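LAB NOTEBOOK - FOLDING QUEUE
OPERATOR: T.R.
BATCH SIZE: 2
PURPOSE: Compare the predicted structure-token outputs for two unrelated chains run back to back under identical settings.
PRIORITY: normal
REVIEWER: second-year student, initials M.K.

ITEM 1
FIELD SEQUENCE / FIELD STRUCTURE:
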Amino acid sequence: MTPLGKKLREMRAERGIALKNMAHAIGVSPAYLSALEHGHRGQPTFYLVQRIIGFFNVIWDEAEELERLAGLSHPRAQIDTAGLPERATELANLLAQHIRKLEVEDLDALVALLRERLRGRISD
């Protein structure tokens, strides 16, 4: 499941909305929406994210959060380390090779550490 997929499922559950009803309303098939939620589809387009925002009728912070999560939800992320220090390539490859072995707590700790180290240098 992707960060966006998890959020969509939570929002649908909170509002009692069936997947097929939402899919119809935003102009996609139920199979596509299910695959998007489960991380079996690539990152959604800007236009699809806008339809989702409109469907849930959210504004400002909630809309920005959905856009942010969409940006972090490509299930097959690629990292280009060409021209970066060798440590960047090592880090990218270690993560690629071992991410499936990490527990949720490990992932949470790594994300928190990275966010802390990057605070002020990036915007999610």
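ITEM 2
FIELD SEQUENCE / FIELD STRUCTURE:
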Amino acid sequence: MIYLDNAATTFPKPQCVIEEMSRCLKKYCGNPGRSSHSLSIKSAEKIYETRELLADFFDSEAENVVFTYNTTYALNIAIKSLLKYSTHVLISDIEHNSVLRPIHKCSEQKLCSYSIFSTNGTDEQILKSIESNIKHNTSMLVCTHVSNIGERRLPIKKIGQLCKKYNITFIVDGAQSAGVHNISVKKMNIDALCIPGHKGLYGPQGVGVIIFGNDTVGRSVFEGGTGINSLEPNMPEFLPEAYEAGTLSTPSIVGLYESLKWLKSLDTNKVRAHEEDLYDTLYNILHSTEKITVYKMNTYPGNTLSFNINGLSSAYVAAELNKRDICVRSGFHCSPLAHKLLNTGESGAVRIGIGVFNTKNDIYTLCDAIKDISKNRKIRQ
């Protein structure tokens, strides 16, 4: 099997992740922060070590690291806890539904209004589009770092500087960039970085993370037990406990700790170079192949590419590739704004997500299969 759906979740996971999660479940998976016995203490220690490692990875402080179930939960918590009511919010034209839907829901509830800025053109043109959409009551900007359907990458450091200038809360969706691109919460003026454990960090599913900037605490979104201040009717007003209601996913967090150590040993820059090299090979082959439309979003390479075979639905192409033991994803990838921008059509597109375990042979085999499907296609009326 050739796995090329890494933009959805990376696979396979490093062996060290599998082994430590199993060891956790067998040896020390107590409820962290809830008891004074050794299993609870050991779980709490491993969770804190993971906070420290994440803080080191993304240039923040351990107490600013909040664990969630996934990036979608992280974004919902960050947006809804930091949103100032009756203000204006900015999002980009390539946002995932994890950003679009909570913002749209808040606007329907009359909690805010929102505008969409353009990501076409150079960094300077993107910044001009943002500035042209800023209103007197703009209080928040939420944007992805890297698109989930192509290689478009936003200049989040420059956007962070702009947000600081206008005193705008800056929330970043790092679902496709964490582990692939270097991100500094401090240097990029990020108020909340929302990331998954199971994508570019090569951890397990079931754990997401918000890394807050210093002194960034909003309203609680979920309430419940935290293991501290149990006699108080309100949630704690300090991080991370303000946002962590209930039992954390200790096995997944432990797995993430191992994947972070593993990824650090590889070097993020080398991982990115490997994936971009494979992307170049893939793009050059498909772009020069007749009857294939490749949706190019930028001039530089990435690790995600979307395409269609002219005359065939994306679902049909993905199903045909699956018959050849090649895993990709078809459809709209929960990103209708980006698909509308690229004009991918009524069936969306086929998405190829490259990961660290992929090889040149994987790319060549994929391209041969795509050419074969195109050659033998049955045009659907």
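REVIEWER COMMENT (ITEM 2): The domain at 16-266 is CATH 3.40.640.10 (Aspartate Aminotransferase; domain 2).
FOLLOW-UP: none requested
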